[in-house]
């Protein structure tokens, strides 16, 4: 049982109802160990995009909800490191390779207009109900070339997305993004540890304007191990 009343002020999600869910208590304990109090997670994620439907999401797919929480804290970490401007998250965001939508929902907690794209068979609504378009991410970026309005182009697990796409997809995607971003807009990518052996891609990324490439802290390095950001500082 939970050691404290953490759901006392919820209207339609009682502590008892939550405890009935399989393995829910273990997941909450895991979140608290990694990220602090449950109240912090609730305020950052659930109250903004999952309240009150997070119970059904947890019941059906704990992995997606866990990924959403983790990616929210990845974003918070990058903001604190000044590698990512919060204002770019609050405007026009395109997420590439959205898969089941965890990244879309994590990005949406900042209030921006987030559009998810994925050509895979799992591309449908995100857990909180945001549409994921069946569209190739590069095509979506290229559609912005003559009306630059993007403030952030993101791709989580970019090396996995590249395996599902053409060779050098990440490099081409970054080039397309730079043509589509507003001045001071940013690219955000995350990678597994496989990026450590991809010297060519790392060198390319580090050649981009205001490049930030860093290993994520241990508590965040679950699905991704490294994060990268770059800025359209030249207003390309």
Structure description:
The protein has 236 residues and is an alpha/beta fold. 42% of the residues lie in helices and 17% in strands. It has eleven helices and seven strands. It has helices at residues 15-19, 24-35, 38-50, 54-60, 62-80, 86-89, 102-108, 137-142, 158-163, 169-180, 199-206, and strands at 92-96, 113-117, 132-133, 150-155, 181-191, 212-215, 226-231. A seven-stranded mixed beta sheet has the order 3-2-1-4-5-7-6. Strand 1 (92-96), helix 7 and strand 2 form a beta-alpha-beta unit. Residues 1-12 have low confidence and may be disordered.
Kindly report how far apart the N and C termini lie.
55 Å
| Oligomerization category of the chains in this entry | single chain
Helical content stands at 40-55%
The spatial strand order of the largest sheet comes to 3-2-1-4-5-7-6
What is the number of helical segments per DSSP (H or I, 4+ residues)?
A: 11
Q: How much beta, percentage-wise?
A: 15-25%
The tally of beta strands, per DSSP, is: 7
Low-confidence stretches: 1-12
Silhouette: globular
What does the radius of gyration come to?
Answer: 18 Å
Mean pLDDT across all amino acids: 85
Main sheet record = 7 strands, mixed
The computed structural class is alpha/beta
N to C succession of SSEs: HHHHHHEHEEHEHHEHEE
């Amino acid at each position: 049982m939970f050691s404290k009343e953490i759901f006392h002020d919820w209207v339609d999600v009682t502590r008892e109802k939550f405890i009935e869910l399989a393995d829910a208590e273990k997941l909450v304990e895991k979140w608290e160990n990694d990220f602090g109090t449950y109240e912090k997670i609730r305020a950052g994620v659930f109250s903004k995009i999952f309240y009150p439907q997070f119970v059904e999401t947890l019941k059906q797919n704990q992995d997606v909800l866990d990924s959403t929480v983790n990616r929210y804290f990845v974003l918070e970490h990058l903001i604190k490191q000044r590698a990512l401007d919060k204002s770019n998250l609050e405007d026009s965001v395109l997420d590439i390779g959205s898969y089941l939508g965890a990244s879309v929902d994590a990005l949406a907690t900042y209030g921006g207009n987030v559009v998810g794209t994925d050509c895979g068979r799992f591309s449908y609504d995100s857990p909180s109900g945001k549409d994921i378009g069946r569209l190739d991410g590069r095509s979506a970026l290229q559609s912005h070339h003559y009306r630059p309005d993007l403030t952030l182009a993101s791709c989580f697990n970019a090396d996995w997305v590249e395996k599902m796409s053409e060779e050098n997809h990440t490099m081409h995607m970054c080039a397309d993004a730079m043509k589509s971003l507003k001045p001071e807009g940013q690219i955000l990518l995350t990678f597994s540890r496989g990026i450590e052996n991809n010297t060519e891609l790392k060198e390319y990324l580090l050649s981009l304007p205001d490049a930030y490439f860093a290993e994520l802290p241990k508590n965040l390095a679950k699905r991704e191990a490294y994060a990268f950001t770059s800025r359209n500082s030249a207003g390309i």
